[in-house]
Every structure is written in C-alpha cells, then in structure tokens.
Amino acid sequence: MDDGTVTGLYRAALAGRLSRRDVLRRATALGLSTPAIAALLAACGGGGAGEPTATTAGGGTVVTPTAGRTPAGSPAASPGASPAGSPTAGMTYTMDTPPEVFNADAASQYRGQTITYYGDTVGIGGELDQALAQKFTEATGITINIVPKPQSATENYATYLRLFQAQSPDMDVMMIDVIWPGAFAPHLLDLTEAFAEEAAQHYQTIIENNTIDGKLVAIPWFADFGMLYYRTDLLDKYGFSSPPQTWDELEEMARTIVEGEQGANPNFGGFVFQGNAYEGLTCNALEWLASTGGGRLMDDQGNVTVNNPEAIATLNRVRGWIGTICPRGVTSYQEEDSRNVFQGGNAAFLRNWPYVYALATAADSPVAGQVGVAPLPAAAGQPHVGTVGGWQLAVSRYSRVPEAAAEFVRYMTSPQVQSYRAQVGSFVPTIPSVAAEEPVIKAMPFLAEMEDVERVTRPSRQTGEQYNQVSTAVFQGVNAILNGQDAAQVVPQMAQQIERAAS
After folding, report:
1. Structural domain spans, the chain
2. pLDDT band at residue 289 using 50, 70 and 90 as cut-offs
C-alpha cells in the first residue's frame, strides 16, 4: 500500500474533511487492518451516536457519486447492515432475514418513485429478488416493479435489445450477462463516479470486463461457472468410490447406473445438461471442446479455430450420448429443466451452475443428503474446465428515475446482499471479502473444490456486438448435431457462419 494514500486519508480525517463513516468506507476499500482503521477513526475525534467503530468493519448520463453516501451521524447499522464497502462480519442470513437497507437515508429522497427491474427467473433467484425488493421499498418508499426476464439468455438479450433500440423508459434496472456489457454499453448509465468506492471491492477482472471505453456500465452481482452434480447414493450403490474424473468414466458410470435404475424408473437418465438451442448450449459446448483437446471457438486474435478433428470427434461423441446415457429430451433442456430432472431423482449426473446447490441440498429436496459436487470431467491429460458465467446489474440511460435506480443497484450489489444471496441461494460472490466469510464458505463448500478448475471464457471481447450472432451459429449447429447430424458436416458450416458473423 502506498504510504501516501494512507497518510492522505489520515490527514483528511484529522482535518475533519471526512466523517467517521467515510473514513471507515475508504479504509476498508484500501484493505487496512482493524488496528489501522481504529487509528484513523480516532483521528476523527469522538463521533456522535450511530457513528461506526473499528469493529464494525470486521470482517449518456452520469449519476453523481454523492447520491449513495450515508450522511455522517445517521443511525448505526443494525445486524446485517454494515456500512457500504465493509465486510458483513460473518453475519448469518436466512431467506426471511434479508439485510437492512444501509443506504436508506440517501435513497429515501426519491420516495414515491417506481423502479421497473428486470429480475431473475432461474432457481431461487426470483424469491430472493422479491424479499430484497420488499425490504428496499419498506426502508425507502421506492416501489420496485419486478418484471421476470426470459429464462433463456438468448431471448433475454433480444428483449433488452428491442427495449434499448426503442429507447424505452419502461426498464430502469436489469440483469446483464457477463458477455453483454460491450454490446449494451451505449444504452447504459456510466456508473464510474457513483460506484468508485464500491468497484474497488470486487474482483478487478470483472470490473475490467464491465468497463467499456473507460465507463463502468454494470456492477458485478454474482459469478458463475459450470460444474458437475452427482448422486452420492447411486455411486455407492453401484460400487463407484469417487465421481468421474474423465468423460470415459462418466460414460461408464452413467451407463451402469441407467441399466440398474431404469427397471424401476423408466424415466431415469444418466447425465443431463442444457441441450436446447440457446446460450446455455454454447457454454456446454465450450466445456466439451476445451476439456478434450478440441480447443475453443476462436483464439485471442479472433481467428476461428473450431473446425478441427478433435472438436468434430468430441461433438460426435456427445451425439452418441443422446438416447443412451442421456434422455432424448435433453436436446430441449435449459437450466431449470435439467435441474428439475436431477433434483426430482431422475438422473445420476447434472451439468449446471452453482445456484443449483442450495436447491438440490435443501431439506425439502427429494435428493437432499445425496448430492455431491465436482469439477466437470476431462479427457486424459486435459484440464478440468468450467465456462465462465455471471450476471451484473445495470441502469438504463433511458430511465426516468436514474438516481433511485442507482441506489437500488447499490443495495442489491452490496457486500451485505452478496453474503445473503450466497448463504441462501449459493450465488457466488464477486467481492473477495464476502467469499472469505465463514458462513459463506459453510453454505458453499464446493468453492474450494473448484479453485483449480480452468475458467473458459466465451469470445465476447473478440466479437463485441457480433457475439450474439456468433453464439447463435454455435448453439444452432451443436443442437443439430445432438439431434442426429454428423459433426463432420456441421462444424465446417458452423465455422464459416462464425467467421461471417465476427467479420
């Protein structure tokens, strides 16, 4: 840490130019120790009741930065409501105890306004949205109108594009996929100044991803990566001591378990994933290729590389799973379809995102106590991989209520809410201090197992606004292969379509 930075903060505190709360926020963002923070707070003098102490910190259009600051002397944070920018000090949350709205004072000046929020529709996300929105409304007087976004990322993209092209004011805050900031940046508010302190808390690679032409257009909300879920009881029943490390082992285990289970359950499948013709299939295909020597869709320079013998062989191999270890219906599955099959006790293995963990292991889940998590298999000598996903929150530049919308985003992406969503819904935090909290680690024990998994990125940075056309060529081509076409015929055509779309 640059001593000058800390010294400057100390001098500002000593001169009274910063409140104790502002000192705490900035010191925490700098990563200072608790004793150092205590010394800085002491320099502020004796704050009034409600001022934070060192122990609190345990653990287009431009929105002005002052809108989100909590005024000095405001009431002390209640449990679960530590100041913006600070860790949540190991607070334990349940569905019915969402965090207090720490920025209620700043947001309440917009009382009576209504925010239209395109929120989550996958898994438990919608329930969490409702609980958090209600908490925000009660604290601020701002109404949150939640519009469920399409489950399919492809349909979701098209919906946003139509609203943006029409410059519609009917969408204020929306979930943005990690691959969309480049395409939607012209339609999003620049949050650089308003969220300068908050941005310092997040993994900087995600902040860089969300910064387009020097403008921070979306705030990280949760991270994602593909992983393998498996039935521990069925592996034990059929004599397998550990989850599959290779695709050969997955085939063997799935085939053995299917043969043993289908007599009693004709609907039982060995392995389910997201096989419908949409963005989720692009994610699955990238994992199959990167884990078997088939490479990626294109290199860092934007050269299309998917048309190679290894990629063709891999996709034909997956085609052979359909109707054998995978149910034929998998070619129409999206996230929730595949989760419901697995969680309903009708599959041995599932490829999906981390959000499934909280649902599949919940007390009311039919497979509770019988679910394990592991990296996705790989060919011998190849890395275990998982496609990078994740979502951000952004504010439309056509919003009639941009300041109120920014305050809602500030609450929803805060450390407190990230901890709540991690503990209750197993959504991966994008704030390192939150990911290190003991209650979060306890709720998401699989994170340690995923540390060495190689993250596979989609080529959105190489293709920019053309990414959606590139992905469409991929998932339509792969879906055709899953439905019986020869990859040797489809992949060359797919490569040509990618080249045309990306040029």
Report:
1. 1-54, 227-388+453-502
2. very high
pLDDT in tens, 414-423: 999 999 999 9
Measured in whole angstroms, the distance separating CA 243 from the mean position of its chain's CA atoms is: 25
**C-alpha closest to that of 479 among 289, 322, 296, 341:** 322
Radius of gyration of the chain measured on its C-alpha atoms:
24
- Asked if 306 and 384 count as a contact pair (C-beta separation under 8 A), the reply is no
| CATH architecture of the domain formed by 227-388+453-502 | 3-Layer(aba) Sandwich (3.40)
What's the farthest any 2 CA atoms get from each other in the chain? Answer: 78
Location of structure tokens 């002491």: 42
Nearest to 6 by CA among 188, 124, 23: 23
371-374 and 385-395 strand pairing:
unpaired
Residue 70: is its pLDDT beyond 50?
no
Task: Name residues whose C-beta falls within 8 Å of residue 55's C-beta, 6 or more positions apart in sequence.
Answer: 34
Is residue 7's pLDDT more than 90?
Answer: no
Residue 22 in contact with residue 68, Cβ under 8 Å? no
Tell me how far the alpha carbon of residue 245 is from its chain's centroid. Answer: 25
pLDDT digits (tens, 9 = 90+) for 365-398: 999 999 999 999 999 999 999 999 999 999 999 9
User: Model's pTM, two decimal places?
Assistant: 0.78
Q: How far is 399 from 364, CA to CA, in rounded Å?
A: 40
In which region does residue 58 sit, left (phi positive, over 0), alpha (psi from -120 to 50) or beta (all else)?
beta
